[in-house]
Please model this.
Amino acid sequence: MRFFCRGSIVIAAAFVMFHAHAEWVLDESPAAANNWGYRPSAEHPPSEVNPPGFTWRPTPKAEAYTLEVARDPAFEDIVYRVERTPWAAHGPTAPFEAETTHYWRYAAYNEDDERTPWSEVRSFEVPGNAVVFPSPSREELVNGVSHAHPRLWFTKDDIPRLQELAEGPLKDHFEAMVTRAERLIASPPDTTEPPLYPEGVEHKSAEWREIWWGNRRRVIAVLDGASLLGFVYHLTGDTRYADAGKDLLMAFSEWDPKGSTEYRYNDEAAMPAIKYGSRAYSWLHDSLTLDERTRVAAVMRERGRQCYQHLHGGHLWNPYGSHRNRAWHFLGELAVAFIDDIPEAPMWLDFSATVFYTCYPVWGDEDGGWHEGLAYWSSYLTRFNFWTLLMRSAYDIDIYERPFFRQTGYFAMYVSPPGTEHSGFADLAERPHVNRSTARTAAIMAAGARNPHWQWYAETIGEGLPNDYFGFLLAAGAAAVESTPPDDLPTSMAFHGTGIAALNTTLVDARDNVQVLFKSSPMGSVSHGHNANNHFMLNIGGQPALIHTGSRDIHGSPHHTQWMWNTVSQNAILVNGEGQRPHNANAIGRIVAFETTAEVDVVAGEAGDSYGNLDRWTRTIVFLKPDRVVIHDRLEAPEASEFDWLLHAPTQFDIDEASASWSGERGSVVTEFVYPAGMSIEQTDAYDPPPHDWSSVDISEWHLTAKPAEASATQDFITVLRINRAPEGIEHSVEGDTHTVTVEGRDERLVFTPEALTIERNGEATRFALR
Model:
């Protein structure tokens, strides 16, 4: 019996050890819609750069990974290998042979140095036209940082040239900074530590908002002020500025980094503390004592640790968190500033570079679109250019070599031509000031990409580089860019990666423009790009005519999440009273056809997958420039359903039996409901729910619903927009599933079937497949 028991113990121990070991395997479950995915692979478009970035699903308890790339699936001809990378992603340091199939695999190590079996083998091929853009190694990143200060954006060697510019062509720009620096000396900002939220305060209430955003403002006032003073000190040599900046920085160092400006407590205060605190430290370094440097470094180490902890656990695999897409490069700035003072700084710098070389930008691809819309395009890409300046000054890396950055300025030009009072889709698009901030960003991008069209766009709107030290350094590092109007460009463009099409009659002046905007996004309706797929808008003379409705009182409020994120607020369609999956990565759309000519633009989108109760919704828009738009909708549901065709305007519609007219300051539009006949049409100005009663948002918009008389499993709609008193006269015929439309004064004959649109003109036919 004793022998049996002892043997049982041995067998049991072996069984436990075997299964404990067997459990240490990779998690290779498929990527979800909100994951970046296994890249590179056939599931994703070919990489625009060589080498591509590699990403894979993190495995629990993994401490490090090994990546291998080979020319053969048996891995006998290995061309690249990286040992023990700490993250489930890697930016290779050398390009691969183009137009050649390569294979890759990875394995993970745990804290006991046990290795998993190799992963599934995946293949990729780098296109021959991919831009060669390898990542620096960690050693190169660290060695590229100057050992002296200042080291962020400029070094001591740069100062004589910057001083010459400050006394010469950039004199006005620099004197404006000196004036602001003098004001900071005469009247320093409040340096008391920002307050905590009172116990029991209502989340997102007026009191909460004042502290939340007020704390951010105080951080910026103190640390941007310290940074400015440090910059002016270096170019003037006047120690008054250094002393004043030091006072602000040291007052900040007394704040509790785990208090009111802690990262998870208020990231809108924590992020500017990271970026401005890093600049202020580097630019004031030689005026600080060793003890003062140590105090600041200790505070910034804790802030960097908080930021890194927030990012590294999931950002590389799920990089769609909006705020994270600026936090990573702020962490990179901090790492450069404190590379000698914080032990983790080299790792943080490597991590930041890994984000950039593997999963940035997440909201656009090589065609230059931006899923989160122009307000966030402007906000985030302006901040991203901090990283651009760092990479150029420290490593001589030109980020504008990458296709996205060579193209993205056109996104602003097409969606919001000069004078447009609305900036398209996504949060804050309804606010007229966005056009000016977009132009400032375009000026920054024009300087980086040397693009004359973007320069023209910025100048035409009346904006230039920021009038601060960032703008000064951009101007100092950029050659003059000549301004060229977009006369040589088509007036319309589709950004397929984000599913946005901008159809214009002119790009030169919005007052002369009729614009149709359309969205059907493969990125879903997540983050700030929450608009429904197959939603369209109309701007006339630069002013909104047919719109998406609501105005964000605060992100995440009931009005924002229950109205603005809901299909009912947009020019789309409800199915049995239900809209698309709100704020969901699985609410997928796509542009299935696009063409632009001088006379006619065509765009079509498919949004059936955006719904939980619909098999198909194909919307085709034909813009007969400049004043007629024909819209065909084809819907297919699994059962007989009711469909509500929605339309919205800034003011009330004038409804007739089968049409709705709207007039604004710069134009008018008549919406004619051609098919089906006999629809009920009604409108309201109610919101459900409205903005919060403490909100300063004051809106009054109208919401129209057109409903067919009978439910059906399939439904076609034919709708025609007549703009600026375009002639009446529409001929429509239907035979089975085929709809044929002609409009008065036009030569085109439009034939819509479930499979295609055919445009017949002058004996020629152009076919656009829709499936």
In short: The two ends are 74 Å apart (CA to CA).
